[in-house]
Amino acid sequence: MKKINLFLKYITPTLGLACYTFFANAQAKGPYEMTIDGVKIVVQPSGNEILEIRTVIKGGVQNYAADKAGIENLAMDALTECGTAKDDKNSFKNKLDKVSAQVYGNTDMDYGSFTMNCIKSDFEVVWPLYVDALTTPVFDKKEFDRIKQDAINNLKAQASQPDYSINKLAKETAFAGKDYAKAPEGTEASVAKLTADETKDYYKSILTRSRLLIIVVGELERSVLEQKLKAMLDVIPQGSPFKLKREAYSTKQNSFKDEKKDLATNYIQGVTSAPLPGTSDYNAFSLASRIFYDRQFLEVRTHNGLSYAPYTIFDGGLSASFNLDVSTTQPDKYIDVMDKLIDKTKKEGFSTDEVKNVKTSYLTRFYRGLETNSAQAASLASNEILHNSWHRALTINNDIKKVSVTDVNNAFNKYLTHITWVYQGDPSKVTPALFIQGNDEKLPPSKLNNEKKN
Questions:
Q1: pLDDT digit string (tens) for 95-123?
Q2: Domain boundaries, the chain
Q3: Torsion sign across C-alpha atoms 407, 412, 413, 415
Q4: Where does 55-195 have alpha helices with state H?
Q5: Domain 255-453 sits in which CATH superfamily?
Q6: What span, in angstroms and rounded, lies between the C-alpha atoms of 211 and 200?
Q7: Taking the mean position of all CA atoms in its chain, how far away is CA 81?
Q8: Do residues 103 and 133 lie in contact, with contact meaning Cβ atoms separated by under 8 Å?
Q9: pTM of the predicted model, to two decimals?
């Protein structure tokens, strides 16, 4: 199964230095926002000598058609791998290496970003390189073909991984015809057709001020920052107005799709609805999903021995969903156990102690993840894009504390309803009707007895 960070089981006595530093800087110097050429700039003082600047391009998978999936991923790689108007690839990287700075691109379901990270004293060296890569990339054909082949090789390697394969099938099935059916990395077929010129034109189309958000974490004088950013933004076109789409996932009935695969075990993923970011149910469902993770792990692995690493995860993106994943040799027994657990959880709810404990572990995990400037920049960016408020990165402590046990129970009952199930493995080992009908049909005693013998 996937290597995932399990939710913290043991609660630390404090929220740690990261929490203290984040809030201390926020309160002492104060994070702030400003607007330059119509672009929102969010600045978080860091209290250290590291400087992180992240230019975010909104849209992610909303920006391209399904047959162009992977184009934004290649474009972001090309910014540093194909050279700029002033430097070829080697010259560009050599200049960065001299000061041990980093400049890199990244893509996700909801946005892409282009980042620079350096010591404050090296800012005047790194900033021109960053601006050149962002605004004057050359998309050299030879270098582009190299990174395209690398991308195809990575996709081939991923295709052989069952965890990647089942997740891909789940998204394509649950979100069929919608943006979230696309993968930012694309497919072998879509990436193979992309050209340097086409990708360059695409990049130019999304590099507009109407799509940008800039996050700065570091210690720079406001006047210096304003001057540098304005000079950069002045050469970027305004572009057409752009608004991110938020699309709630829901299905009116359970469904099941299987693919025959020669695997040592069978892989199952279920997709159900979840609250959109920025809604009142979001924090409550986040807590519910973490408690349910522990419960299903206990039932599926510890009590029934059906899988060594079952897990659930709340994907809180712009098309949010809740996912249940397992690899097992006994898929029918798994759905029987899972149906009963969901039914029991809805009837009995979560306890006061469970909610109290998960709040502490949630906040501990959140603040432990803010130990670097990069992590703080990522948090500010995701909260602004997903929740329409970068301030949430600073108020999450109080926000979570306000969530009641009733809120958590109501959120779980509201969203965990019908499930889209996908299956890869041996079709003879699974009874689709059990997944489609859910609690309406239970695993017959004969099946349970046979599986216990096996």
A1: 999 999 999 999 999 999 999 999 999 99
A2: 31-233, 255-453
A3: positive
A4: 71-81, 89-98, 123-135, 141-159, 162-174, 188-192
A5: Metalloenzyme, LuxS/M16 peptidase-like (3.30.830.10)
A6: 17
A7: 24
A8: yes
A9: 0.89
d(CA 113, CA 381): 9
Distances (CA, A) of 150 to 91, 112, 144: 21, 19, 10
E strand intervals along 209-320: 212-217, 255-260, 266-273, 311-315
- Among residues 279, 284, 281, which one has the least CA distance to residue 388? 279
Stated as kind and residue range, the H or E segment containing 420 is: strand 420-425
DSSP annotation string for 33-58? EEEETTEEEEEE--SSSEEEEEEEEE
Evaluate whether 390 touches 383 at the Cβ level (below 8 Å).
yes
Cβ atoms 123, 183 nearer than 8 A: no
Q: Is the pLDDT of residue 12 over 50?
A: no
Strand segments, DSSP code E, in 287-341 are 311-315, 321-328
- C-alpha–C-alpha distance, residues 24 and 453, integer Å: 59
Q: What is the pLDDT of residue 29?
A: 76
Confirm whether 31-233 and 255-453 share one CATH topology.
yes
pLDDT in tens, 270-328: 999 999 999 999 999 999 999 999 999 999 999 999 999 999 999 999 999 999 999 99
Token pair belonging to 409: 């129970």
Phi and psi at residue 340, to the nearest 5°: -65, -40
Q: What are phi and psi of 289, to 5 degrees?
A: -65, -35
Q: What one-character DSSP code corresponds to residue 137?
A: B
Start-to-end Cα distance in the chain: 22
Q: Would you say domain 31-233 falls under CATH 3.30.830.10? A: yes
Is the pLDDT at 449 greater than 50? The verdict is no
Taking phi over 0 as left and psi of -120 to 50 as alpha, with beta for the rest, 425 belongs to left
**CA dihedral in degrees (297, 303, 307, 310; nearest 10)?**
-10
Q: Which two tokens stand for residue 158?
A: 């991923």
Return the amino acid letter for 362.
Y
Question: Which DSSP string do the residues of 138-163 spell out, in sequence order?
Answer: ---HHHHHHHHHHHHHHHHHHHT-HH
Place of tokens 């003082």: 45
3-class DSSP state of 228 = helix
Residue 281: helix, strand or coil by DSSP?
coil
